[in-house]
Design goal:
326 residues, mainly alpha, 12 helices, 0% strand, transmembrane helix, SpoIIM-like, transmembrane, membrane, Stage II sporulation protein M
């Protein structure tokens, strides 16, 4: 669409919104938030197709005013925590779906490298996972208990230890994004190669089906590490590609947005830690239907909350804002 056509199509809506932002005009805070979502959609479109144009500068200025007005006038929810998880975060995360895709592709590329390398070099898995772990796993396989490592330790101790470690990895994946996203890419890549090598190691021993026990907790664990990697890329890319903002302002926004994404992963890591501490140790005795039910339910939960629900919520709010403005 030509810029002139884009302006003509949306000009009336923008002018109505601009008047609504006037301090002398009273507007329902919820309606204001809905208008803001539509405006940010137009801003994203202009950033993509009309960079460095006057239209982009105008929309950027309007969005900044709207942002300030929303956070000044929006009613505080009686239950802010529920509001964050149910509305605020999903709407916010929709704008970073493309970044999430990049994080996923980086991770899966590393998994592929790990698989191919392990298939072609038996010593590769030792290089990645370490001799001690490989030797211990081989001994467990020979004893007929390849997943014995998940049965050791107390349930509560395993739950707490795994949860804390997973959150630490997520924070690292985010924090390392400060190194121009390179640190986050390294974390995603190293974890991806480890996963690929690990799965292929079991495949080489003809017991790939036994890994279903690991996926009981690993489905959420791995998925959320990728999401934490997305958070790191958001922060790193905000400095590399500031768009219409100064690098300082863009980086501060990117760091704040990335941190919000990391915070969203904490409950999921707690769930993954609980499964590993209390359920995974019984995975080999579990009926396949129950085991795969947990695995696919976990995957469905992640896909719904981070991908499907944000899209649905964004469309719902966009349609409301269009009706309200027009």
């Amino acid at each position: 669409m030509r810029e002139a056509s884009f302006v003509k199509q949306n000009k009336e809506k923008w002018l109505v919104f601009e008047k609504a932002l006037d301090n002398n005009v009273k507007i329902n805070p919820d309606d204001l938030a809905s208008y803001y979502i539509q405006l940010t959609n137009d801003l994203s479109y202009a950033q993509t197709y009309y960079p460095e144009s006057k239209t982009l500068l105008y929309l950027n200025s309007l969005a900044s005013q709207a942002h300030q007005r929303i956070y000044i006038t929006k009613r505080e929810s009686k239950n802010k925590i529920v509001s964050f998880w149910k509305y605020e975060f999903p709407l916010f995360f929709r704008t970073y779906h493309k970044t999430l895709l990049y994080a996923f592709l980086i991770f899966m590329s590393a998994v592929f490298i790990g698989v191919v390398s392990t298939l072609n070099d038996d010593s590769f898995v030792r290089l990645i996972l370490g001799d001690a772990y490989v030797n211990m796993t081989i001994e467990n396989i020979e004893n007929g208990e390849p997943m014995a490592v998940y049965k050791s330790g107390s349930q509560v101790g395993t739950f707490l230890g795994i949860t804390i470690n997973n959150i630490r990895v997520a924070i690292m994946a985010f924090a390392f994004g400060v190194i121009f996203s390179a640190g986050t890419i390294f974390i995603l890549f190293s974890n991806g190669i480890m996963l690929g090598a690990f799965i292929t190691f079991f495949y080489n021993y003809g017991i790939l089906e036994k890994t279903s026990t690991i996926w009981l907790h690993g489905t959420i664990e791995i998925s959320v590490i990728v999401i934490a990697g997305c958070a790191g890329l958001v922060m790193g890319n905000s400095f590399l590609f500031p768009k219409t903002h100064s690098r300082r302002v863009s980086f501060m926004k990117g760091a704040k947005d990335g941190l919000k994404i990391v915070v969203s992963t904490i409950p999921f890591f707690i769930v993954a830690g609980f499964i590993e501490g209390f359920i995974t140790r019984f995975g080999e005795k579990m009926h396949p239907i129950l085991a795969y039910g947990i695995i696919f339910s976990s995957l469905a939960l992640i896909i719904f909350y981070y991908i499907i629900y944000p899209i649905q919520l964004n469309k719902r709010n966009s349609s409301k804002s269009i009706k309200s403005i027009v």
